[in-house]
Design a protein that fits this description.
heterodimer; A: seven-stranded antiparallel β-sheet; 3 helices; 16% helix; B: 13% strand
């Protein structure tokens, strides 16, 4: 429970999809890049010049947890805290995670990763995130002004993936 | 405001760092530049892209230019989802580079 006083409670939902085709590799090879901390550290974390990793752990099995805490150049600390729910070797990974910024919970999300053979060869990778963005960390009501149209456009753009 | 310009503005880690900084309050150009390993002119160029994307406004008082997030541009929720998406676009590209180290899908 947050100890902040006068936190305005709110939830905003969002969803996006990122897709890539990787030539010359099997779906299993792409899955394997997610399946161990050694492989994942090659590409998942931000470049070292952008931040310092403070904490890193990964227990890749249903019910297992993954954690990545980093301190950015700006001094901001981000905390990625995930729990795996579904792992089908070579095909699918589903995890839920929450993000904290400077100790404050910002979002709770569900991430679904799918690995399939691409029609023309190689591997097709799809990442879908469905998230609940919490309490806005925005006590500044001015942001509500004039955003409706943007929100509609953004939702449409995100829905297209 | 074009969404393409907004996505493009958020597709760069330095610019996201600047947006993250400004999400905590207005800052001068030199305050924005301080934690970044780049020249002041480079910072000013990045700021121009952020302004083009409708995310940041700036105001010069005397010799000091102060930048702030454009309140009407995007709520923090939208900024957040934009950042998550841009971060995943980057990750997917880094994953592609990593996968290239496995010729024919086999470990090197």
């Amino acid at each position: 429970m947050s100890t902040d006083t006068l936190v305005k409670r709110s939830v905003a939902h969002g969803m996006f999809t990122v897709q890539r085709t990787y030539p010359g590799v099997t779906p299993r090879r792409v899955f394997d890049a997610f399946a161990s901390i050694e492989a994942k550290n090659n590409w998942f974390t931000a470049p070292n010049e952008a931040w310092d990793v403070v904490e890193r752990e990964m227990d890749f099995r249903p019910g297992g947890r993954e954690r990545l805490v980093g301190r950015w150049k700006s001094g901001m600390i981000t905390d990625f805290d995930a729990t795996y729910f579904d792992i089908v070797a070579g095909e699918r990974i589903i995890y839920a995670y929450e993000m904290r910024i400077d100790g404050r919970k910002i979002s709770t999300s569900l991430a679904t990763l799918e690995f399939k053979p691409a029609p023309g060869g190689g591997a097709a990778f799809t990442m879908t995130e469905q998230g609940a963005f919490l309490d806005g960390y925005d006590d500044n009501g001015s942001r509500e002004r004039g955003t409706n149209e943007i929100v509609d456009k953004l939702s449409a753009a995100l829905a297209k993936g | 405001m074009g969404l393409d310009a907004t996505f493009q503005a958020l597709a760069d880690p330095s610019r996201r760092a600047m947006v993250e900084r400004l999400s905590r309050g207005p800052a001068t150009v030199s305050e924005l530049a301080a934690p970044l390993a780049m020249s002041l002119p480079a910072v000013v160029q990045h700021l121009a892209v952020l302004q083009g994307g409708g995310l940041v406004t700036s105001e010069k008082v005397g010799r000091v230019r102060t930048c702030r997030l454009e309140p009407a541009a995007l709520s923090l929720a939208e900024q957040w989802f934009n950042q998550r998406r841009a971060a995943w676009e980057e990750r997917a590209d880094r994953l592609g580079e990593y996968l290239k180290t496995f010729p024919d899908g086999e470990p090197k």
